[in-house]
Amino acid sequence: MTIEVMKQLEELKAIVKSQAKWITLHKAKENMEYPKWTEEGYEFYKDCIDDNIGSYDFWRLLVINYRNERIGKPVRFKTGTVGGTPDSAC
Length: 90
Prior knowledge:
This protein has 90 residues and is mainly alpha-helical. It has three helices and two strands. The chain has a domain at 28-78. Helix content is 53%, strand content 4%. The protein has a two-stranded antiparallel ribbon with strand order 1-2. The longest helix is centred in the first third of the chain and has 26 residues, at 3-28. The chain is rod-shaped.
């Protein structure tokens, strides 16, 4: 191998290592316990949630919905039948 090829190989190794770290960090966000910053929203909706595990996006949307619910503008998602009455948090 030439010095140039060896240099390119080292650069690729550094890129792969960096990408592996990024992937690991983002995989951890796919299946996480509710973060501290979602506690109010989690307590409000916990009767509607099966457990306290969800993706980062799930927790983010839960907080957005909770904040809208608090100001009287609930966000309703059309994902099928949801338990409870139309006026309930669920």
